[in-house]
């Protein structure tokens, strides 16, 4: 590589600006950064004040012209969203450009198509910034950890929901209050659905599962529940029982196949993920023979995400310096897409909060019903209300989800149970 | 690469056996592992029962013959200790073999010599297993994180001392009791000095600092204190003040240069490193623009360390597949060896426990003395003893170590102070 690599940046928002900031101040960073030059930057409008300055002719509103420009080596896609991001990435690939992207939505849905196109064109597509912001997780999964048989990945990979759950726990506030606060602070969007309903985490665990297990997972296969149902009282009870409630994204190898899911989960306080607070992310990887390793850090933010984007650029520069051959470390899934294990077959612990009229025999009836469905209880705690109602909190040992759901469905029909409500059913991190 | 890569393994202890175990069961691991073959294994004696079986002629007691064998591509050094490990590594390099080693003692002392020899011979020397056991830290520092300006590395990188400190905290026991227990459990050596006096952590932070800052650090430059002086009562007081005591290895960029040190440190309970318990390791890297990222996992053990060894083997296989050229990602320090910042110039917080005769004016005298030396106090707590003595616990704001030491030296000469003892002086993780 005699000349600098020329890159075209699509998007100059927070991450794009921070990416340019790193490349324009290469001192005390990896020496290869000096060999990367920002040649074009695609923006929506030219007449806006920017935090970084570029030479005349670098800024353009013509994104198509960037991805087809024969002078560019790499396209960095940072505009987000599905279209035109997907089409621009594919067009850049078909014009022999390497691609770096932070776009988890595009990769989780169209990753297979994009990687196939890249393999045909002989270019790299690197995605370190798509999951976990600045935390190095994609590359360790592909390299250092890939000599292990990966058993599971457990992640807190959505900062917004972790911020909300942390606030709810420390302040005792309810979901809707804290959501409003998070929106005012800019930690949650006006339309918070992608975060609070778990879709963003689902995108990310789809990507991690595909890499870790070498099997193409698709987003539609992922079972997904958000945090809207988690109440302040659930967090209090969990606390009393020794747990924190976290929105976990989980990919697990089961005997019958892979299981991939996102849902609020009770995590024992002594578990490494229990202490991950605020907008931080953490990903816990378990494999043989390594045991557990965890990666922790800022899951979002311009600077952190830009660190991941630029590390991908540097890695492309390094690989091109060695050879034009395709990097064998970028492993394409070895297995075709398969069915995941359905959520009914999940083996986990459960927490349920049950309210009904307080009369003798309630606990006994519940115990018998759970037993009949092979649901073994770890604890059952009754709190009596003043108004004649009892609130009963149940934590199970490992059970099959299907059995637990059948038991729950039968409870309203039990003799001693009247005016029942089951305001909360949550999964508890399973026992070993 | 048409043929499998042939490796020679030096040492078949816990890590060697686990390394062979991974290579001999490549299913569900990275496909490149199938292209690595164990051709020779060097051991002390042939007539010992082993957990893994090898074909006839693979085991040998002639280590020299392995490192000079023209049929071998890679030598994996797992015998530990300084000699003959260093000589064998250098001889392997001079015979054009790539080297993978877990030997932190050799790399921290002779890394410069070894890397220079490797650069001349055009071979790789990979050391992921030398720090943090299975935790991927060397490669992320060289790759993903290297686009950042690294400001600091804080690590709990010695499992034995962390186990001892955790036990002392949970059981209220004293150092010597817990050390005996750790020795019985096999977590501490019969001669525990390398661990409890901080030398093992010093080896490892030397390696991390050299990589992170691109500057050759040598072991003799590292200021090193172990945990023998930490008492159960210090841990209790720290607890009351909201801290955990951890043996931290710290490399920090200061305005005047680098500072590298190992010492017991009070860590605020809400800090990510405060929750790292038992034999686990964690490394917290802080840089611009990424902020803080932490890597956590098993810092020792056969399987975890073997995972790191084999990931290095796989990376060599991958790089050789691309080209015989030297990998530009393996950055050799860009700067020559420089002076580190002396410990006297350290700016940190301090904790001190002072015992003296309880008389009026003691606190005032102490406060005035600290103030005179520009030491600002965060808290000063007096506990009266029955026997006429007072125990006083002091925590400072950020101060210069030199100023604090001068104040301490003056305390015995103060008017109100009689029969003084200062049983503990510990550093507290500094304020931002």
Automatic annotation (TrEMBL), chains A, B:
Binding site for L-homoserine: 189
GO molecular-function term, one example from the UniProt record: NADP binding
GO BP of this protein: methionine biosynthetic process; threonine biosynthetic process
Similarity comment: Belongs to the homoserine dehydrogenase family.
Catalytic activity: L-homoserine + NADP(+) = L-aspartate 4-semialdehyde + NADPH + H(+)
The keyword Lipid metabolism is assigned to this record: no
Entry protein name: Homoserine dehydrogenase
Cofactors: a metal cation
The organism's taxonomic lineage, starting at the top: Bacteria, Bacillati, Cyanobacteriota, Cyanophyceae, Nodosilineales
Residues that hold NADP(+) according to the record: 10-17
SUPFAM superfamilies for the chain: ACT-like, Glyceraldehyde-3-phosphate dehydrogenase-like, C-terminal domain, NAD(P)-binding Rossmann-fold domains
InterPro entries: ACT-like_dom_sf, ACT_dom, Asp/hSer_DH_NAD-bd, HDH, HDH_cat, HDH_CS, NAD(P)-bd_dom_sf
Enzyme class: oxidoreductase
Record carries keyword DNA repair: no
UniProt keywords, alphabetically: Amino-acid biosynthesis, Methionine biosynthesis, NADP, Oxidoreductase, Sodium, Threonine biosynthesis
Binding-site residues, NADPH: 104
Active-site residues, as the UniProt record annotates them: 204 (proton donor)
Domain ACT intervals: 351-432
Entry's EC annotation: 1.1.1.3
């Amino acid at each position: 590589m005699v000349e600098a690599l020329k890159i075209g940046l699509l998007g100059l928002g927070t991450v794009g600006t921070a990416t340019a900031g790193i490349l324009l101040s290469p001192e005390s960073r990896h020496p290869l950064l000096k060999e990367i030059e920002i040649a074009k930057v695609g923006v929506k409008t030219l007449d806006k004040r920017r935090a970084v300055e570029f030479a005349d002719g670098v800024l353009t509103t013509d994104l198509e012209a960037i991805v087809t420009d024969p002078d560019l080596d790499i396209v960095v896609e940072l505009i987000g969203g599905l279209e035109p991001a997907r089409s621009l990435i594919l067009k850049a690939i078909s014009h022999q450009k390497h691609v770096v992207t932070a776009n988890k939505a595009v990769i989780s849905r169209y990753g297979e198509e994009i990687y196939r196109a890249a393999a045909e064109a002989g270019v790299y597509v690197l995605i370190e910034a798509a999951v976990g912001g600045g935390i190095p997780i994609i590359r360790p999964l592909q390299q250092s950890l890939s000599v292990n048989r990966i058993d599971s990945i457990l992640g807190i990979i959505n900062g917004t929901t972790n911020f909300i759950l942390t606030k709810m726990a420390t302040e005792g506030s309810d979901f809707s209050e804290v959501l409003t606060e998070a929106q005012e602070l800019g930690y949650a969007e006006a339309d918070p659905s992608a975060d609070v309903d778990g879709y963003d985490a689902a995108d990310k665990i789809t990507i991690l599962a595909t890499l870790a297990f070498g099997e193409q997972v698709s987003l539609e296969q992922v079972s997904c529940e958000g945090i809207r149902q988690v109440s302040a009282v659930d967090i209090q009870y969990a606390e009393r029982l020794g747990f924190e409630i976290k929105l976990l994204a989980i990919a697990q190898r089961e005997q019958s196949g892979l299981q991939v899911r996102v849902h609020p989960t009770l995590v024992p306080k002594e578990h490494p993920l229990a202490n991950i607070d605020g907008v931080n992310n953490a990903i816990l990887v378990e494999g043989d023979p390594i045991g557990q390793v965890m990666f922790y850090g800022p899951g979002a933010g311009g600077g952190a995400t830009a660190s991941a984007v630029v590390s991908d650029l540097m890695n492309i520069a390094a690989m091109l310096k060695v050879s034009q051959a395709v990097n064998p470390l970028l492993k394409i899934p070895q297995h075709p897409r398969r069915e995941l294990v359905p959520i009914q077959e999940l083996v986990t612990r459960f927490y349920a909060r049950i309210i009904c009229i307080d009369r003798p025999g309630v606990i006994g009836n519940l115990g018998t019903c759970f037993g009949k469905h092979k649901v073994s209880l770890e604890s059952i705690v009754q709190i009596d209300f003043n108004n004649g109602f009892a609130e009963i909190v149940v934590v199970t040992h490992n059970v099959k989800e299907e059995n637990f759901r059948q038991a729950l469905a039968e409870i309203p029909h039990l003799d001693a149970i009247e005016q029942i409500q089951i305001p909360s059913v949550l999964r508890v991190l399973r026992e070993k």
